[in-house]
UniProtKB/TrEMBL annotation:
Keyword Phosphoprotein: no
Organism of origin: Cryobacterium tagatosivorans
PROSITE patterns documented for this protein: GS_CATALYTIC (PS51987)
Signal peptide: none
Pfam families tied to this protein: Gln-synt_C
Keywords: Ligase
Record-level GO BP terms: glutamine biosynthetic process
UniProt xrefs under SMART domains: Gln-synt_C
GO molecular function: glutamine synthetase activity
Protein name (database record): Glutamine synthetase
SUPFAM superfamilies, alphabetized: Glutamine synthetase/guanido kinase (SSF55931)
Lineage: Bacteria, Bacillati, Actinomycetota, Actinomycetes, Micrococcales
Length: 450
């Protein structure tokens, strides 16, 4: 097996007693191996063993799936920790974390490794002269009580001072933990729903942005447990409160110039920026199963829920799937970006961000025309008005979305058949197992799985 060159680590590896080496599978679940400090260099050179089933074929309830190309009983991969992304979670305990790439035994990235896919798409964008940055907004739900009898941890008001102060010690410990781990947080606040919290991340290059997001989930889970709280990252963690999204903000620059700010362009964006928005919209029906991908993801996509429940775009509109976010006066060239609102935490975020970038690049390459924006609640439009501006519904449920994804020549070419078929197989188990259940029952069975 080929030895992997070691990257410089931002952490003194001599202080690490245990390194969590994790990857995200096709169910959106973080799986891991833990190695003692003395084994870090060995793991970085030749990886930690990950069975093919654990790497790619476990469903959210650990059901083992298979595809024509991948037999869950045969084969091993190596999880190669990225030492350049090591983060210290607890200096006193000596606990650190690193994301990993899945490699075959010959030392090359496995064709179905989602993190490697996102790296490849980043290189393709750079080859086209484009520099993408990603900023994520993650919503989640906190509970007191027990796993069997959870109680929402706060009862608002939304964005209120009161729920912050009631959970002040938790909020401050989480902020401290995230800062200690090197996660660049923009803000943290109680969200609209009871028990709901949102964390906003500073924009970074695509891979590091998703790494930050995953690390933050681990830090938040750890500190919540220390405070006697339970945390759920499901898109629907309770039907008694608001659903959780994971909004993907993306911007792109060519020669240092933000393509989503052009005062002379239509709606304030350049022609190239318009092509990107159009590309994301055009491929959204076939790719929405990658932006969430669980049965509960489609329960979340409801009107009047600020979830982006219909396929169209608008300027600052919270009810559309794709929202142009102009920057603050005088800072538009720095801040203007596009938000994909219909994504949620059930996704493998490497794949979700990959599909956004691939769609945007395709929009540029095909010069996709940008439709008229929708700057009202789409529910207020007549059928004729909706048709005139290209407002289209999402697939009705996960099964229908997976049918479109599986048939997508665009996604199959961008992702490769091995990855796409493994993803579809895993998510079809979700649809078959939870799709016909009452929502409350599906929530109860999956609340703590992510």
């Amino acid at each position: 097996m080929t030895s992997i060159p070691l990257a410089a680590s931002p952490v003194d590896l001599g202080t690490v007693r245990a390194l969590m080496i994790s990857h995200v599978d096709n169910a959106g679940v973080s799986r891991l191996k833990v190695v003692p400090g003395r084994k870090i260099e060995s793991a970085a050179r030749s990886g930690s063993t990950v069975s093919l089933s654990v790497a790619l074929l476990l469903a959210i309830d650990d059901h083992v799936c298979r595809t024509d190309e991948l037999d869950s009983t045969v084969g091993d991969l190596r999880g190669i920790p990225d030492l350049g992304a090591v983060a210290m979670i607890d200096p006193i305990a000596g606990l650190a974390w690193a994301p990993s790439d899945l490699h075959t035994l010959d030392g090359t990235p496995h064709p179905a490794c989602s993190r490697s896919l996102l790296k490849r798409l980043g290189r393709e964008a750079e080859a086209d002269g484009l520099d993408f940055t990603i900023g994520l907004e993650m919503e989640f739900t906190l509970f007191t009580g027990s796993a069997d009898a959870p109680v929402l941890a706060h009862f608002g008001p939304g964005y209120g001072v009161r729920p912050f102060l009631e959970l002040e010690a938790w909020h401050l410990d989480v902020l401290r933990g995230l800062e200690q781990a090197g996660v660049p947080i923009e803000q943290l606040h109680p969200e609209f729903g009871a028990g709901q919290v949102e964390v906003s991340f500073a924009p970074r290059d695509p891979v590091r942005a998703v790494d930050d997001y995953l690390l933050a989930r681990h830090v938040i889970t750890r500190h919540s447990a220390a405070h006697g709280l339970l945390v759920s990252f499901q898109p629907v963690a309770s039907t008694a409160t608001s659903s959780n999204g994971c909004h993907i903000h993306f911007s792109a620059r060519r020669d240092g110039v933000n393509v989503f700010h052009d005062p002379a362009g239509s709606w304030g964006v350049s022609d190239e920026g318009g092509h990107m928005i159009a590309g994301v919209l055009a491929h959204m029906p076939e790719s929405v199963a990658l932006l969430g991908g669980s049965t509960l993801s489609f329960e979340r996509l409801q009107p009047h829920n600020w979830s982006g429940a219909v396929i169209c775009w608008g300027v600052g509109n919270r009810e559309v799937a794709v929202r142009l976010m102009p920057g603050y006066a005088g800072l538009e060239a720095t801040q203007s970006n596009v938000e994909v609102k219909c994504a949620d935490p059930a996704a493998n975020l490497y794949l979700a961000v990959a599909t956004v970038i691939a769609s945007a690049l395709d929009g540029v390459r095909t010069e996709a025309p940008l439709p008229e924006p929708v700057n009202v609640d789409p529910e207020l439009l007549t059928d004729a008005e909706r048709a005139a501006v290209g407002v289209t519904p999402f697939p009705a449920d996960l099964s229908e979305a997976l049918d479109l994804l599986e048939k997508s020549a665009f996604v199959r070419e961008a992702f490769g058949s091995m990855l796409l078929d493994a993803y579809v197989a895993v998510r079809r188990h979700d649809a078959a197992t939870y799709g016909a259940l009452p929502v409350d029952e599906a929530v109860a069975l999956t609340r703590w799985k992510l």
